[in-house]
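Run: sequence + zinc ion -> complex structure.
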Amino acid sequence: MKQIEIIKPDDWHVHFRDGEILKAVVPETTKNFARSIVMPNLIPPILNGKDALLYKKRIEKAIPKGEKFKPFMTVYLTENTNKDELKESYKNGLVFAVKLYPAGATTNSDSGVKDLRKVMPVLETMAEIGIPLLIHGEVTDKEVDIFDREKIFLDQKLDFICNSLPELKITLEHITTKDAVLYVKEGNKNLAASITPHHLALNRNAIFVGGIRPHNYCLPILKREIHREALIKVATSGNLKFFLGTDTAPHLTNDKESACGCAGIFNATYCIQILAQLFDNENALPNLEKFVSRNGANHYNLKINDETIVMVKSNQTLSFKNYLNIDEKQKIKIFKPDFSVFWRIAY
Ligand code: NCD
Ligand code: ZN
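>> structure
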């Protein structure tokens, strides 16, 4: 038996949805994480401080009694976002960060940004007062190959934002390529990146193992093995600019197992155990705490959590539950990697 104690992790990118799904998924996150940044891509999206506060209250109602968990709320950037209202909501603590979805890039992103120049005044205000910008970094042109959309975004869009506003705090979210790793590593000090457990665990072959695997379909889409290796290398290196954002994105199995299945992987349940195994496989357990508990807090100028968790490794593999049940008819598939996990959370 091997045992480690680490500062309680944070998840800097979650989708909690709403209604019955929210009630079911929130406890899966709160049992292992102290804080999360909550994505605003509901239908309709969270557009202002007032909506964010109401959504936050619905999330707080779903936190099991006795658990301490802090959701940090975001608003969805549109070409109509009002910068004065945003400033006010940030100062009042209603809004923690702003999310940029290029229009059409992913699930529920129809109201996203089409023309970056139109949101520059809002980004300038954010840079002035310190509001972080969270970016879904993919171009959306239909002509661009789906596997190249992140790389092209770096060249065509991110470079422009970073050069125009070096003071803006930016998180390039759920990065998937060696190009993004390099860009962020060499970028200015205000630029950091989050990485998901599934992009660390799987390459794009996982979408097509013996047939099409809708539960391994997410956006940005899984990439080649060389890219996964670059992500593993940087995540396990302890580099301050890279941290966990799970992008846990629940969809009902009916919506995934469909002729036009939704993008998103629900990984909240065993995320930390899977990461412990991945770091262990790389002989990098001493850097796990940096990736899951320290680097993100540092990027967002927050204190690290007071609490700790204890994890143990035994020679018995962890048995995964397959589904999270929403009601008698509806369920969500829980992410399970294609390797054995020997780590558990003891307390
Ligand atoms: C997310 C979702 O379902 O909301 N899907 C996904 O594949 N990651 C949206 C997103 O973060 O891109
Ligand atoms: Zn997401």
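>> summary
The pocket of zinc ion (ligand 2) is lined by residues 13, 15, 39, 247, 249 (CB under 6 Å). The radius of gyration is 19 Å.
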